[in-house]
Structure formats: structure tokens, C-alpha cells
Amino acid sequence: MSRGFPNAGGGSGSIPAAPFFFLRHGETDWNREHRLQGNTDVPLNATGIAQAEAAAACLAGLGIASIVASPLIRARRTAEIAAAAIGLPVSFDPDLVECRLGVREGTPRGDFLERWHAGPGGAGRR
Fold it and tell me: Which pLDDT band, with edges at 50, 70 and 90, does 11 fall under?
């Protein structure tokens, strides 16, 4: 049994299996510069737009029924490019916004993310 979803693995009352595609946003200048973005609204650069267009071409014909994205401009623009290629509207969900990294946003990534993901005592964040 999965938490919150009785019989999610099969059997009576189970959640039907359905394909799910997760597409990360294209590159931004901050990605290229290895800077922490977090909640800062950094737009796609030319490479990121090209990446979104290439991903959109791969998604066409897969039977995708809906697209939901973060409202942050990098995710929004990536989703809009994909949606245009497959003829769907995009819904935006503020719960998909990346976590806030406070004063660390815009700073060099370094090993901060690895330490943050590991959490206290290296237990990791899940």
C-alpha cells in the first residue's frame, strides 16, 4: 500500500497506471554560470529555448493530455514551447515553484546543494 493511496500497486480501488512525463526547464544564464536559482525568476537563454524546442519535438505524438508547469518564467516558457508543439494549453500551479534559497540565490552553487540535499547528519531531504 502506498501512503495516501490505498491499493496503489494494484487490485480493487487502485490508481490506474498512466504515463507521466517530467520535463525540466531549459538552460538559463544562471544554470550556465552554476549559480543557485531557487525562486528567483531567471529567464531561458538562447540555449534553453533551443532545448525546449528540441524537447517539444520529442513529445509530439506521445498522447500527452495535459501540461502543468511552475509559473516561474523559465518553466513557463519551456512549457509554452512544448504545449504549442502538441496543441495543448498550459496550466500553471504555484505549488510547482522551486524552493526558496534566500540569500544564497544568485550565488555560486559550490557544494551547497549537495549539503542541503543531505540534510542534518547526511540523512537527505525527501
Answer: low
In a domain, 2, yes or no: no
In total, how many domains does the chain have? 1
Q: How far is CA 11 from CA 16, 28, 50, in A?
A: 10, 44, 43
Whether 34 is a known active-site residue: answer no
Active site residue 98: yes
Amino acid at 12: S
* Torsion from C-alpha of 24, 32, 42, 70, nearest 10 degrees: 10
* Annotated catalytic residue, options 98, 105, 114, 117: 98
Q: Find the domain containing 65 and state its range.
A: 29-101
pLDDT in the model for residue 124? 56
Residue 20 lies inside a defined structural domain of this protein: no
* CATH label of the domain that carries residue 36: 3.40.50.1240
**pLDDT the model gives residue 43:** 98
In this predicted model, what pLDDT tens digit does every residue of 76-126 receive, in sequence order? Answer: 999 999 999 999 999 999 999 998 988 998 988 888 778 877 887 665 555
Residue 96 lies in a domain: yes
The answer to whether position 116 is within a domain reads no
Which residue in 25, 27, 80, 117 is the catalytic one?
25
Confidence (pLDDT) at 1: 36
